[in-house]
Amino acid sequence: MKSTDIRVIPGLFSIAIILFLWFIVAPPQGVSANAWHLLALFVGTVVAIIGKAMPIGAIAILAITLVALTGVTNDSPSEAIKDALSGFSNSLIWLIGIAIIISRGLAKTGLGNRIGYYFISLFGRKTIGIGYALALSELVIAPVTPSNTARGGGIIHPIMKSIATSFGSSPEQGTSRKIGHYLALVNYHTNPITSAMFITATAPNPLIVKLIADATGADISITWGTWALAALLPGLLCIALMPLIIYAIYPPEIKRTPDASVFAKDKLTDMGPMSYAEKIMISVFGLLLILWAGVPAMILGPAFAVNTTAVAFLGLSILLISGVLSWEDVLKEKAAWDTVVWFSALVMMATFLNKLGLVAWFSGVVESNIAQLGVGWMVSVIILVVVYFYAHYFFASTTAHITAMFAAFFAAGIALGAPPLYLGLLLAGASSLMMSLTHYATGTSPIIFGSGYVSMENWWLMGLIMSVVNLTIWGVVGGLWWKALGFW
User: N or C: which end of the chain has fewer CB within 10 A?
Assistant: First the structure.
């Protein structure tokens, strides 16, 4: 690890917080010493992640080490190390890791670019059509791209930039508002929506599934199909409205773009016919969607249900056997292995905070404060979700935010009378939609913001507007949709 990977001040600050909570602050009444000490380690870990004291994987290794050495989960050293490593046995973590490796095939085969240029060739005669083409392209690849950063920043953004440049729109020339400003905003604001639509569309979503299951004693186990169905209507509505809203607030100077369709067709011509690797990739893509959605079980019965993570391993196995991906590709996919490490550490700490009673204590504090207002569960949910959502102004990581707040706010909402699945789905959607707020909200934002097409003022204003629109749609339209589906 390079010395430049270490930021001393945030690191010292996180250590100071751990020591302060561990030695200075006494555990509140009803909280055990072990639970409080684990909280100290947890808070210090989250602060280190927010402050980027080290790469998140390195922070995770330190967290695992401290949990094992301090024995906060178990007095027995042999049991403590088992507890510290228990996150690696979580199948949802491996689902995301394997899905990230599978998504490497989109870039390696060129299928991701082909999909993007195909939609632009269909809808690219007007600027707003290009916007919808970018949104639809990301929607199509979202189910098998757990890295929202790779999807929005690595695949769609280069396509967006090439289109903008072809029309002479660039920050360097002062011509961003021709078309690039609009397309960059659409490029970005698609990312939170597609991330909210599938368990496998962004890495922290499986963590949410686990936190909901833990809080309800596994009474609510959200499957890939349940999540996708629940998010279908609100997600599609958000995608339908988003390019129009951005167009109305920041209209591009160029409205008609007949050359964009020609440009995309030329790109497709350059790519030539779909290759063997692309055909295998799209076949695996279809197979994953069918199995994740539980189609065999629907048709043939529960005996033919397949575990979601096992399906991901099946997809990767096919890509390896067919030669679309090599073992070297698997080893080189650093994002996947990095995710498995940090995800395991955070899941482990969140799990034991719950087991040791800390989450129940904190949710009780939140619940009692809202209960004093004397409002019904609907108003209570609005308060909880709004506070949870806009707290993201203080976070540079959705993972850190979810790990720090989701479980307590979900438990508090249930205690206040909210239907568990409704609240869980609403908070799950909010956990991705909150990415819209700032230029540091998630890994995708600095990539697109850094391209220079959008000023910080415009970025934050558009983020605030879209946050209100998306959250309202998820809460109202989503709530009615879930009611119709019998989810609450």
Answer: N
Bridge partners, residue 126, by sequence: 256
Q: Choose from 50-59, 95-104, 377-386 the range with maximum mean pLDDT.
A: 377-386
What does the block give as tokens for 414? 């249930």
d(CA 482, CA 419): 11
Q: Which residue has the tokens 């790469």?
A: 55
Predicted confidence band of residue 237 (pLDDT cuts 50, 70, 90) = very high
User: 3 burial class (0-12, 13-18, 19+ CB within 10 angstroms)?
Assistant: exposed
Helix (H) or strand (E) holding 460: helix 456-472
Residue 117 neighbours by CB distance under 10 Å: 26
Q: Are 98 and 343 in contact (CB under 8 A)?
A: no
Average pLDDT taken over every residue of the chain: 90
Listed in sequence order, the residues at least 6 apart from 298 whose beta carbon sits closer than 8 Å to its beta carbon are none
Q: To which H or E segment does residue 345 belong?
A: helix 334-355
For range 153-182, the mean pLDDT: 88
Name every residue whose Cβ is closer than 8 Å to that of residue 440 and which is 6 or more positions away in sequence. 396, 446
Q: Tally the C-alpha atoms within 13 A of residue 79's C-alpha that lie toward its C-beta.
A: 6
| Cα separation, 246 vs 249, whole angstroms | 5
